[in-house]
Design a protein that fits this description.
Two copies of one chain form a homodimer.
Chain A (H helix, E strand, L loop, with lengths): L4 H17 L4 H8 L3 H13 L3 E3 L4 E3 L1 H23 L4 H11 L5 H11 L12
Helix pairs in contact in A: 1-2, 1-4, 2-3, 4-5
The first copy, chain A, binds a DNA duplex (30 and 30 nucleotides) through helix 2 and helix 3.
DNA sequence: ACGTTTTGTGAAACACGGCTAACTTTTAGA
DNA sequence: TCTAAAAGTTAGCCGTGTTTCACAAAACGT
């Protein structure tokens, strides 16, 4: 409910980092996203109160609900980044811009677009920078 | 400079409305975008001070600079809406979601994407709802 | 020409999402 | 173990872009 673009970004980064390193701390998220730890702290409080994450003593992890959103965002991220790279956009720019495109579509529209463009599924989060 | 997503939306709507009806007033923009006239008033003040629009007694029009941005946004809008419609998304949803996608890409990336997907140019603003 | 309706503006408030700064708590090294 | 560094939190601020409400100014019908 009421999940904004920035909230989706936080969930996605927790997902990617947890695949990459297991335990995820706020500071990892802050570094990954390039925001301050204060921003992460604030965002985590909101996400927790909405049931997307749970905070341990010194780690954060996704709830089932948060994981679902995060996976979906990551899937879209890979899709758009791959699409842009195939179009000739540099990996760095594609990643930056794909980050925004991934929040624009409903689930239904995204599936239709993917079906039409017929791209193969890409590998998991550990393959990305 | 420093044109945000909302600023681009305002410029685009002025462009579309001017093609459709000639003279554009603040209230037309407000209705088109679904915001209050106070919001339009504020936004127009900013856009005018940045040289994107000029305000007459009771109308708004784009400067050359504003027109360039607006045309570019409209072009992208049509591109993404067409893409989504071809994928099977309803016209209404495609229009809503295309509205967001059009702000995600740099000029360069957009051109590359368009070249790869090889879509034909679409008609002008008067063909849209 | 007058009054009503429509349109535009200004002030104050809010939500959001970021920041810094100061503080607390935890971790970890010597 | 004790102290210093790292991590997390809290409070307060800022910029953006909305809103509502009150008001001003223009347009229009009769």
């Amino acid at each position: 409910m009421a999940l904004r673009e920035s909230g989706e970004d936080y969930l996605e980064s927790i997902y990617v980092l947890s695949e990459r390193q297991g335990i995820v701390r706020s500071i990892d998220v802050a570094e990954y996203l390039g925001v301050t730890k204060a921003s992460v702290s604030k965002a985590m409080a909101t996400l927790e109160s909405n049931g997307y994450v749970e905070m341990g003593k010194r780690d954060v992890h996704l709830t089932e609900c948060g994981l679902e959103v995060a996976r979906q965002m990551w899937e879209r991220h890979c899709f758009f980044v791959g699409l842009l790279e195939d179009a000739g956009v540099s990996a760095e720019v594609a990643s930056q811009e794909g980050c925004h495109m991934e929040h624009c579509l409903s689930e239904e529209s995204f599936e239709k677009l993917r079906a039409m463009l017929g791209r193969e599924d890409v590998a998991g989060p550990t393959t990305e920078a």
